[in-house]
Design brief:
Layout: H1 2-17, H2 47-56, E1 60-66, E2 71-78, E3 81-88, E4 94-102
Antiparallel strand pairs: 1-2, 2-3, 3-4
Length: about 100
């Protein structure tokens, strides 16, 4: 009986002394897209692929303005702002991001 008491007491003490793991704080993550961001890992893209890649980066209501030549030009919304984004066709790299206004 005394041996069981010591074993139980030792178990309770060891449980009391173990540190309690606290949950980590949640951090809001934002997707960054800046000039020089490579959207397609250096491979050439089509106009529709560029639109899809921008949508995956958080843009919405994407309109294709010009998909002829070396650069594809898109207009899109992100948050409360409208942007004009230029993407290089040969490697999918963002070459220009310009805020063109705020949405009302």
């Amino acid at each position: 009986m005394g041996k069981n008491l010591f074993v139980s007491l030792g178990l309770v003490l060891s449980l009391l002394m173990t540190p309690v793991a606290l949950p980590t704080a949640a951090i809001a993550q934002s997707v960054s897209i800046t000039i020089g961001t490579n959207l397609n890992r250096g491979r050439g893209i089509t106009c529709s692929q560029g639109e899809r890649l921008l949508r995956n980066r958080g843009f919405r209501n994407i309109r294709r303005m010009d998909c002829r030549g070396r650069f594809f030009i898109y207009r899109a919304l992100r948050g409360n702002s409208r942007f004009e984004i230029a993407v290089r066709q040969s490697n999918g790299r963002v070459v220009d991001v310009r805020r063109i206004g705020r949405r009302r």
